[in-house]
Design brief:
This protein is mainly beta. The protein folds into two domains: 219 residues, Pectate Lyase C-like (3 Solenoid), CATH 2.160.20.10; 180 residues, Pectate Lyase C-like (3 Solenoid). Helices cover 11% and strands 42% of the residues. It contains four helices and 31 strands. The strands form two sheets. The protein has a 20-stranded parallel β-sheet that branches. The chain starts with a helix and ends with a helix. The N terminus is likely disordered. It binds 2-acetamido-2-deoxy-beta-D-glucopyranose (6 copies). The site of one 2-acetamido-2-deoxy-beta-D-glucopyranose (NAG) has 4 residues, from strand 18. It is found in: Secreted, Cell wall. Keywords: Cell wall, Cell wall biogenesis/degradation, Glycosidase, Hydrolase, Secreted. GO terms for molecular function: polygalacturonase activity. Pfam families: Glyco_hydro_28. This is Pectate lyase superfamily protein domain-containing protein.
Length: 456
């Protein structure tokens, strides 16, 4: 994940793009006339072929076909989706139905709330954007495709597919992984996040298949109480920046029972995130589960109370990783990685406080403090090209209270066992580990940078 780009996106997209578009969208919705007489909500029909669980019998259903959507995969169905949204938004516990056996092409759209509570977006068919940068309307944002903004209490669910059609975006000359040398050429590089939830709360996203996003598949920012369950996210291992689920400035996030394979972080947790619970997910191929990168351009980042448990990471560059830039401040604390199976993972356990995407990162004294991190029951195999445990903490701000128990990591091939690497890492081994982590410094450092933690 290219963090500098994210930060830029947040600022630019909000200030210069988001607000004007929102205004235009409102105006558009008001002036556009439905192609047929505005349909009244149909009584609930037996449409739930797969995965849906709608109990209320009085639910009002807003089928996008009734608003003029064609669903042939070619016609632009954006207006129909906007009209269905505007109508359903006014009704308590409304269901917007995207029916099975249809493929809807919709442009970059902001679905704006607040809406009445209990809204369900039931996706049984396929939704996809225009195919690649050349088909993308010039006046649409190239940083986001479907945006949900200021929504409280919505569920997005169903057995359908969201197909990001990312390939032409991945092949832009500016993208990394483009050729063997990894050189990036100049040229436009913005690529849309498939699904962005912004300033929203009490969201459920479940059951869907999301594939081939041009950039991140999901991005949640400034959200709280988000429940993600049973998602299937898939993009090729060489697709650049296709993080599965990215969260930042969000809290109360649960990510359960999902399978993610992609070309970047499986789940990435950015600054301002706390109370995040990740359980029973399978990642790989991917870049693993990451906290960070944090502290870019001397920023303050606070992340705490994150649990990742009962999960599998396979054929990935990293397993569980905490990455920070030099020069930041704030803290990552109270993180538990428990019961994680590693299968041929390059860096199963990794702390990198020297994260840097260019060659020219200079050494700085300030850093995001890393403390109170538990690694428990992490077993499996590592790709022996690099050590299985890599704890590279800041020169000036040591990591404190790292505890390891029941860690058993064996090389996926060959006999050579690589020694763990530690730098300025303090903590305790609660059990014998394989390989043994002799380099972990016992106890607490003499200088305790409490100052950093207190800022959070
Ligand atoms: C973009 O331009 C097209 C054609 O001029 C117009 O129909 C559409 O509403 C515009 N979209 C936005 C988001 O402004
Ligand atoms: C959150 O959503 C659930 C399920 O839709 C609902 O029962 C609950 O009342 C909502 N809570 C809030 C605070 O909106
Ligand atoms: C874990 O997630 C997988 C994939 O969604 C699911 O098939 C399995 O039932 C889940 N296991 C548990 C214990 O919930
Ligand atoms: C930590 O997060 C979990 C949810 O993942 C929450 O239930 C718990 O209350 C949080 N703990 C604290 C101390 O806030
Ligand atoms: C930065 O610090 C690291 C670790 O102390 C050292 O290996 C490296 O040479 C330093 N780099 C520069 C540019 O000073
Ligand atoms: C070390 O971290 C663990 C887990 O977060 C916590 O329970 C414990 O209190 C911490 N110990 C110290 C000395 O801060």
């Amino acid at each position: 994940m290219d963090f500098s780009r994210i930060v830029l996106f947040s600022a630019i997209s909000f200030c210069f793009f988001f607000l004007p578009i929102q205004g235009r969208y409102r105006a558009l919705s008001q002036i556009s006339l439905p192609p047929s007489p505005a349909p009244s909500p149909a009584p609930q029909a037996a449409f739930l072929s797969s995965g849906g669980t709608v109990s209320s019998n009085s639910a009002a259903i807003f089928n996008v076909l009734s608003f003029g959507a064609i669903g042939d995969g070619v016609t632009d169905d954006t207006q129909a989706f906007k009209m269905a949204w505007d109508a359903a938004c006014q009704v308590q516990s409304a269901i917007i139905l995207v029916p099975n056996h249809y493929s809807f092409m919709i442009q970059s759209t902001i679905f704006t709330g607040p809406c009445k509570t209990g809204l369900i977006l039931q996706i049984e068919g396929t939704i996809m954007p225009p195919d690649g940068p050349n088909s993308w309307p010039k006046n649409n944002s190239r940083r986001q495709w479907l945006v949900f903004y200021r929504i409280n209490d919505m569920s997005m669910q169903g057995g359908g597919v969201i197909d990001g059609r990312g390939e032409k975006w991945w092949n832009l000359p500016c993208k990394p992984h483009k050729d063997v040398k990894g050189t990036k050429l100049p040229g436009p590089c913005d690529s849309p996040v498939a699904l962005r939830f912004f300033l929203s709360s009490n969201l459920t996203v479940q059951g869907l298949k999301i594939k081939n996003s041009p950039q991140f598949h999901f991005r949640f920012d400034n959200c709280r109480d988000v429940h993600i369950d049973s998602l299937y996210i898939k993009a090729p291992s060489q697709s650049p920046n296709t993080d599965g689920i990215h969260i930042e400035n969000s809290n109360g996030v649960k990510i359960y029972n999902s399978v993610i394979s992609n070309g970047d972080d499986c789940v990435s947790i950015g600054a301002g995130s706390y109370n995040v619970d990740i359980m029973n997910i399978t990642c790989g191929p991917s870049h693993g589960i990451s906290i960070g990168s944090l502290g870019i351009r001397n920023s303050r980042a606070c992340v705490s109370n994150i649990t990742v448990s009962d999960s599998t990471i396979k054929h990935s560059d990293n397993g569980v990783r905490i990455k920070t830039w030099q020069g930041g401040s704030g803290a990552v604390s109270k993180v538990t990685f428990n019961n994680i199976h590693m299968d041929t993972v390059r860096n199963p356990i990794m702390i990198d406080q020297y994260y840097c995407l260019t060659k020219g990162c200079i050494n700085q004294t300030s850093a995001v403090l890393i403390s109170d991190i538990i690694y428990a029951n992490i077993k499996g195999t590592y790709d022996p090209r690099s050590p299985p445990i890599h704890l590279a903490c800041s020169d000036t701000v040591p990591c404190t209270n790292l505890t390891l128990s029941d860690v058993e990591l064996l090389p996926a091939r060959g006999q050579t066992v690589l020694n763990p690497f530690c730098w300025n890492a303090y903590g305790a081994l609660n059990t014998i580990t394989i390989p043994p982590v002799y380099c972990l410094l016992e106890g607490t450092p003499q200088f305790l940078p409490q100052l950093y933690a207190d800022q959070c």
